[in-house]
Design a protein that fits this description.
Layout (H helix, E strand, L loop, with lengths): L2 E5 L9 E6 L8 H10 L1 H8 L9 E5 L7 E6 L10 H18 L4 E5 L10 H18 L7 E6 L4 E2 L3 H14 L7 H23 L8 H9 L2 H11 L4 H7 L4 H9 L7 H10 L4 H10 L9 H11 L14 E2 L1
Parallel strand pairs: 1-6, 2-4, 2-5, 5-6
Antiparallel strand pairs: 3-4, 7-8
Helix pairs in contact: 3-4, 4-9, 5-13, 6-12, 11-12
Bound molecules: adenosine-5-diphosphoribose (APR).
Adenosine-5-diphosphoribose binds next to strand 2 and helix 1.
Length: 329
């Protein structure tokens, strides 16, 4: 996947470049800055001295020295005051400038900390949203052949809060739709029937000629349409390019070329769901696409119910809702 959020110590990451959340002096400090300088050794500070500082929002590159990476890209994030002093624009610039430097130096893998989200006080959930948005936009814009793997390295146990309305919405939707709280044998049997019923319903949905199909022949034609053909048809209908689609789905190019080449390509369920969300399909179209890959959204799977909730509410980018999104990473 082009963007991965991992929990790790960034000084341990074996990538081409790691990014340092520095200050304008570039002469070291606490937090991740201190950790990187300690792990890289004194030569890093020596080279930093020769750079004569770095402006907030800008980035400069040095070697990695004793670190397991070739380069360190030093960027200076904004100090959070209230979000009304251009903090987001400066934070975006940190990621953009760092990615540009990484690209100019031929890096194919880079690891970012959550810039400004420590001492500089940027709220972590907003910092994550800005990071994922900016990185994804950069990767989509740069559709050249070199696939860059980007890690967002979260160090401390960070939880992101859900805003009341979304939490209440999801909780209520799960209550209304979640088939069973605990699956014992009987429940598992019913759950199987339930998901096969869902499957039959889905099949029935598709067979009942959704509104945009005029005749039964066309409906049957749609059923014969393979998973791959439906994805490619939807890309055309949405006026997207392949890279825009697979990068928005956070899939890598190699996986997508399999779909392009093999009309009988069979994805994993989460790949099929990622493509449905990237293509911003309706719930009916999502069920149809899943069915072509042999899956169904099941009401005995909370994850499926949450995906259903997001699609029904036209929320096609979970990261955009990170200020509304709860998870522990
Ligand atoms: N690996 C990955 N992430 C880390 C590590 C580490 N070893 N250590 C800290 N972090 C995380 C923090 O948990 C935080 O989420 O990096 C994020 C950024 O925190 P800071 O390092 O405090 O950086 P920032 O908020 O941008 O403040 C920069 O702090 O250290 C000084 O010299 C630095 O003055 C500058 C200021």
């Amino acid at each position: 996947m082009p963007i991965e959020i991992v929990r790790n110590d960034i000084t341990k990451m074996r990538v081409d470049a790691i990014v340092n959340a520095a200050n304008e002096s570039l002469l070291g400090g606490g937090g991740v800055d201190g950790a990187i300088h300690r792990a890289a050794g004194p030569q890093l500070l020596e080279e930093c001295r020769s750079l004569h500082g770095c402006k907030t929002g800008d980035a400069k590159i040095t070697k990695g020295y004793d670190l397991p990476c070739k380069y360190v890209i030093h960027t200076v994030g904004p100090i959070w005051t209230d979000g009304l002093h251009g903090e987001e624009k400066l934070l975006r610039s940190c990621y953009q400038k760092s990615l540009q430097l990484a690209q100019e130096h031929g890096c194919t893998s880079i690891a970012f900390p959550l810039i400004s989200s420590g001492v500089y006080g940027y709220p972590k959930d907003q910092a994550l949203r800005v990071a994922t948005d900016t990185i994804r936009d950069f990767l989509i814009r740069n559709t050249d052949d070199t696939d860059m793997l980007v890690y967002i390295v979260v160090f401390d146990k960070t939880s992101f809060k859900i805003s009341g309305k979304l939490y209440a919405g999801i909780a209520e939707y799960i209550d209304d739709n979640y088939a069973f709280e605990h699956s014992d044998r009987r429940h598992r049997r019913i759950a199987q029937l339930e998901s096969s019923r869902v499957f039959e319903d889905t099949l029935a949905d598709c067979m009942c000629a959704p509104k945009e199909i005029g005749s039964l022949e066309e409906a049957l034609g749609m059923i014969d349409e393979s998973f791959a053909s439906m994805v490619l048809r939807k890309i055309d209908e949405k006026g997207m390019t392949d890279p825009e689609c697979y990068k928005k789905a956070n899939l890598d190019r190699k996986l997508f070329s399999k779909l392009r080449k093999d009309n009988n390509y069979r994805p994993k369920k989460q790949t099929a769901l990622a493509l449905a969300i990237a293509l911003e399909l309706s719930l009916e179209e999502t069920k149809e696409l899943l069915m072509k890959a042999g899956y169904a959204l099941s009401h005995s799977d909370k994850g499926d119910i949450i995906v259903e909730y997001f699609i029904l509410n036209n929320m096609y980018n979970i990261f955009d809702k990170s200020d509304d999104f709860e998870g522990e990473i």
